[in-house]
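Write out the 3D structure for:
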Amino acid sequence: MKVLVIGAAIVDIIMYIDKLPKSGSDVLCKNNEFRVGGCAFNVSKVLKNENINFDLFSPVGKGIVANYVKEELDKNKYNNFVVDQSQDNGYCLTLVENNGERTFVTSKGIEKQFKKKWFNKYNLNKYEYIYFEGYRMSDNSGDLIISELENYKDKKFIFCPGPNITNIDNDLMNRIMKLKPIIHLNKKELLEYSKTDDILIALKDLYQKSNNAIIVTLGSEGSSYYNNGEYLEFKISNKTKIYNTTGAGDTHIGLIISWLINKNNSFNDAVEYANKNVIKYII
């Protein structure tokens, strides 16, 4: 079984600070990192570490950021990404506070505008699972990507809307839901989308649209799972202080996909596996 991961590979500039500054004020950075990220790349990195057969469908452009991205992909033996030198890749400034929470400022690049010809590189019939990210759904790429995926409705789609869930056009979201994707998101995203403070009401509302499993991450409390009226919560037994939660959701769904591919087993076991192992990637 093979997975296609559709989305962005960008550069994350991560700055560690005590807390976010007020408007017009100043703050010193205690430490910083410069690394390749992006939801799709983060997911693919987990799949690679878990020895899953996959392709990363992500564009690499031309410029300082793109050069850094390509160097990382080449070093880790990614060999089936898209090369399009029409512009540079994007980057994201991530401000990480003492409590591990993060705030993003993103500058979009070539990943904001997928091109139809890029799909010629991939035979979508080869893949059992197809992952796609929410950031691409709220920019100029969304309609094109979904139009292509609508030709393969027999596939198992995995959709991670992310914080952009409320910025996705309603008509496009309806088309996404008709693909019946497995949905993975955090509690804040779920409640904001459903406009309620009740997680069960929100899950039932979303399930009526997607008709497939929904996995919700709950931070240090673990995660929950909803499918066809069944609601389960999975607690984390050994809590560890997290200093940077960047990529935690991407890692979590990457581990779930890995379990489903390797074990062809239940979602319950997949979610428990992800809860137990996500800490190895983000601490």
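The CA atoms of residues 252 and 278 lie 6 Å apart.
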